[in-house]
Amino acid sequence: MSGRSTSAVLVLEDGRIFRGEAYGALGTGLGEAVFTTGMTGYQETLTDPSYHRQIVVQTAPQIGNTGWNDEDDESAGIQVAGYVVRDPSRSASNWRSTGSLADALREQGIVSVSGIDTRALVRHLRERGAMRAGVFSGDDLAADDVLVQRVLDSPRMEGSDLFGAVTTREPYVVPAVGATRFRVAALDVGIKSNTPRMLAQRGVETHVLPASSTIEQVEGFDGFFLSNGPGDPATADGPVALTRAVLERRIPLFGICLGNQILGRALGRGTYKLPYGHRGINIPVIEHATGRVAITSQNHGFAVEGEAGEEFDTPFGRARITHTCPNDGCVEGLAALDAPAFSVQYHPEAAAGPHDAADLFDRFVSLMAGER
């Protein structure tokens, strides 16, 4: 293999270029460069639909040491637009491994780069913010100014409607484990595989529905779940309208991540883009009613407008900001006070990640049982 074919570059829209070695597939990957602080769970990260059209930078220096397996995917395949690592493991060693990370990236066409200074890159993104980027290798390498222009010609994340690219095309059902206590309609705007599993363990039969579903398809269920997902929540007019219809009918509702933003917009709040987002499995969240702090898994670049503990009027009664992040004051949870609805910005179904917030699924079950 020639020296040219083993080189790769990460090009940022502000002209900063990081040079390394090709890893995974060769070619071009265009998206928004973001970083995640998780030291484990790279397979779940790569297959999380919320990372659709993003180039993910791992802050942990060594990645790939446990290989790739057939059990931990959070969707049907790798979702990222590109992947950036410092030191990929040269061998995989884990009893569940069925292959290597590098092989999975190659087989699924994910253009990646290794051997760059990810510490310098993360500092740059923290100072300048998440931005458009491209990973280029093989025959797609070109002069620096040509590559920068390719990045500048790519779409921005603001205003991007991405959930339509990751939603299920047909409804499907995940049965309850044991006796069925409740039936839930889950709107798939990027749902992770572990969410229906968490519900199933609590006796919930989950009907996963396409993002274009109507209120007629939701009526008759015991509850409504709004999933995580990618893109700008300001583009989610259809899911927001459906959520308003659910609120009008007082169907118990639980949302996470993008679902939190959709509920926020349904309640009349605005959303905005964070400078570099929250991505990792070690992010603290305060629940204001109890003072309890949970360490959470998060993956979001947008947030709901609001202040800690704030109450506000909505078309469906009063609502409250229930959770915030102490790092930056970002809204991490909402609840309607006069309707059976609540949401969080983080991932209580975290895999890999902490389980501090898993009891939120129990709260959803209690809501469907008529307990407030």
Automatic annotation (TrEMBL):
<feature type="region of interest" description="CPSase">
    <location>
        <begin position="1"/>
        <end position="182"/>
    </location>
</feature>
<keyword id="KW-0547">Nucleotide-binding</keyword>
<dbReference type="GO" id="GO:0006526">
    <property type="term" value="P:L-arginine biosynthetic process"/>
</dbReference>
<keyword id="KW-0067">ATP-binding</keyword>
<feature type="binding site">
    <location>
        <position position="50"/>
    </location>
    <ligand>
        <name>L-glutamine</name>
    </ligand>
</feature>
<dbReference type="InterPro" id="IPR017926">
    <property type="entry name" value="GATASE"/>
</dbReference>
<keyword id="KW-0315">Glutamine amidotransferase</keyword>
<dbReference type="GO" id="GO:0006207">
    <property type="term" value="P:'de novo' pyrimidine nucleobase biosynthetic process"/>
</dbReference>
<dbReference type="InterPro" id="IPR006274">
    <property type="entry name" value="CarbamoylP_synth_ssu"/>
</dbReference>
<dbReference type="InterPro" id="IPR029062">
    <property type="entry name" value="Class_I_gatase-like"/>
</dbReference>
<comment type="pathway">
    <text>Amino-acid biosynthesis; L-arginine biosynthesis; carbamoyl phosphate from bicarbonate: step 1/1.</text>
</comment>
<dbReference type="InterPro" id="IPR035686">
    <property type="entry name" value="CPSase_GATase1"/>
</dbReference>
<feature type="active site" description="Nucleophile">
    <location>
        <position position="257"/>
    </location>
</feature>
<feature type="active site">
    <location>
        <position position="349"/>
    </location>
</feature>
<feature type="binding site">
    <location>
        <position position="258"/>
    </location>
    <ligand>
        <name>L-glutamine</name>
    </ligand>
</feature>
<dbReference type="InterPro" id="IPR050472">
    <property type="entry name" value="Anth_synth/Amidotransfase"/>
</dbReference>
<dbReference type="GO" id="GO:0044205">
    <property type="term" value="P:'de novo' UMP biosynthetic process"/>
</dbReference>
<feature type="binding site">
    <location>
        <position position="302"/>
    </location>
    <ligand>
        <name>L-glutamine</name>
    </ligand>
</feature>
<feature type="binding site">
    <location>
        <position position="229"/>
    </location>
    <ligand>
        <name>L-glutamine</name>
    </ligand>
</feature>
<feature type="domain" description="Carbamoyl-phosphate synthase small subunit N-terminal">
    <location>
        <begin position="6"/>
        <end position="136"/>
    </location>
</feature>
<dbReference type="Pfam" id="PF00988">
    <property type="entry name" value="CPSase_sm_chain"/>
</dbReference>
<dbReference type="GO" id="GO:0006541">
    <property type="term" value="P:glutamine metabolic process"/>
</dbReference>
<feature type="binding site">
    <location>
        <position position="301"/>
    </location>
    <ligand>
        <name>L-glutamine</name>
    </ligand>
</feature>
<keyword id="KW-0028">Amino-acid biosynthesis</keyword>
<feature type="binding site">
    <location>
        <position position="299"/>
    </location>
    <ligand>
        <name>L-glutamine</name>
    </ligand>
</feature>
<keyword id="KW-0055">Arginine biosynthesis</keyword>
<comment type="subunit">
    <text>Composed of two chains; the small (or glutamine) chain promotes the hydrolysis of glutamine to ammonia, which is used by the large (or ammonia) chain to synthesize carbamoyl phosphate. Tetramer of heterodimers (alpha,beta)4.</text>
</comment>
<comment type="pathway">
    <text>Pyrimidine metabolism; UMP biosynthesis via de novo pathway; (S)-dihydroorotate from bicarbonate: step 1/3.</text>
</comment>
<feature type="binding site">
    <location>
        <position position="261"/>
    </location>
    <ligand>
        <name>L-glutamine</name>
    </ligand>
</feature>
<comment type="function">
    <text>Small subunit of the glutamine-dependent carbamoyl phosphate synthetase (CPSase). CPSase catalyzes the formation of carbamoyl phosphate from the ammonia moiety of glutamine, carbonate, and phosphate donated by ATP, constituting the first step of 2 biosynthetic pathways, one leading to arginine and/or urea and the other to pyrimidine nucleotides. The small subunit (glutamine amidotransferase) binds and cleaves glutamine to supply the large subunit with the substrate ammonia.</text>
</comment>
<feature type="active site">
    <location>
        <position position="347"/>
    </location>
</feature>
<keyword id="KW-0436">Ligase</keyword>
<dbReference type="GO" id="GO:0005524">
    <property type="term" value="F:ATP binding"/>
</dbReference>
<dbReference type="InterPro" id="IPR002474">
    <property type="entry name" value="CarbamoylP_synth_ssu_N"/>
</dbReference>
<dbReference type="GO" id="GO:0004088">
    <property type="term" value="F:carbamoyl-phosphate synthase (glutamine-hydrolyzing) activity"/>
</dbReference>
<protein>
    <recommendedName>
        <fullName>Carbamoyl phosphate synthase small chain</fullName>
        <ecNumber>6.3.5.5</ecNumber>
    </recommendedName>
</protein>
<dbReference type="InterPro" id="IPR036480">
    <property type="entry name" value="CarbP_synth_ssu_N_sf"/>
</dbReference>
<comment type="similarity">
    <text>Belongs to the CarA family.</text>
</comment>
<keyword id="KW-0665">Pyrimidine biosynthesis</keyword>
<dbReference type="Pfam" id="PF00117">
    <property type="entry name" value="GATase"/>
</dbReference>
<feature type="binding site">
    <location>
        <position position="231"/>
    </location>
    <ligand>
        <name>L-glutamine</name>
    </ligand>
</feature>
